[in-house]
Amino acid sequence: MGELLKAAPVAVELADRFVAAGEQIALVGGSVRDALLGRLGADLDFTTSARPERTAEILRGWAEAIWDVGAAFGTIGARRGDFQLEITTWRTDAYDRSSRKPEIEYGTSLAEDLVRRDFTVNAMAVELPEIRFVDPHNGLVDLAAGVLRTPRSPEESFSDDPLRMMRAARFTAQLGIGIAPEVSAAMTAMADRIEIVSAERVRDELVKLVCARFPRRGLETLVETGLAERVLPEVPKMRLEIDEHHRHKDVYEHTLTVLEQAIDLEDDGPDFTLRFAALMHDVGKPKTRRNEPGGRVSFHHHEVVGKKLTAARMKALRFDKATTEDVARLVELHLRFHGYGTGEWTDSAVRRYVRDAGHLLPRLHKLTRADCTTRNKRKAAALARSYDSLEERIAVLAEQEELASIRPALDGNAIMAELGIRPGPVVGEAYKYLLELRMDRGPMTEEEARAELHAWWAARSESADEPGSEPGKGTGTPQ
After folding, report:
1. Who contacts 322 (Cβ-Cβ below 8 Å, separation ≥6)?
2. pLDDT greater than 90 at residue 246
3. N or C: which end of the chain has fewer CB within 10 A?
């Protein structure tokens, strides 16, 4: 521990100031756990005998920035060099069991503070500046054994703060450790209590879990304990749906494999949008399952249903609009590649694929490739070659055309000027017609676009003049 703290001399500097002021301080929680794992970062957590106002006083003149947004909970934040510090007064909180908001009570010892913490691996401390390791609940043993336990009984801990059950699943995903049987049993028995936690807090834990190193382990924990049925019910519902393309595994197992394969394709660290789309891409299958002749099972249009379910779940979890739309769109598009048969992609089809994917195209590439979990090596190789071919076609067309921003040669203003009409729905119809031509034929000159526009306008006007047509339909409003 002493060797690891050499990487963070700021901790010893801070401790010297507190001791000089007659206060006690210790590195605590996740910082100690991470240091023992050899990955002490720049975000350090401390616990102290000092009250928040006293902590702020000690920090003045040493810290480069101080913030007190957590002062009501006993926490003062500070920055020193590259390090972000959080210093919290010893606490021994009392909880209202009808909510997860504690009545803040300051403690009188480090031991009181450690016993209230969520898990033993987070209930270790290093008293500073003497660097004395404090581990009253055998957190080091549990960390070495790869098991998650609670300092008090798990029932008492989860009753105080039900979000700790989500944190348990998250830690299995982050640390790759298991959960003690008594902790798992308490999570299963008390899963309903997660419903008193705000959607935002559940969402934040879910994002951390999905973006962790081993998200499959965390998701399996949520499903096995019944927590998923309360916070992400679409996932456990997939367990009984047998995938017609992958008869050796059900849709749930297939989905977890797709998630892992999508992670393998990431370029620059965890991509929540890609990972969550992989997790949700088949959630429409339970609602669209149909038994077909010959023992087959079909899931027609499950991508459309899946898009709606995904958007609804993310809205319930208070995700931002942009992330929700991106994930739902990827779910909707994940089968688009397979709609083109054995790969006879026309230029028109390639343009539409690129246009529909928009800025999500790189993620759609990864999701589509990850969605192949067949054990048939020949089939898997054929799918890979087919998608290689598509990406090559996209690259070739991208060099010839502006695929990333496909638009017709005439915009709305040019259409109104050309036809002598005012703004209205007909302008959109004309624009859509020219866009479809652009998709089918490729780039057109303005002269070609004007000729096509007038031909469309004339045909539309003739149709509107036929007996039985609606009066005035298709004529527009002259300027």
Report:
1. none
2. no
3. C
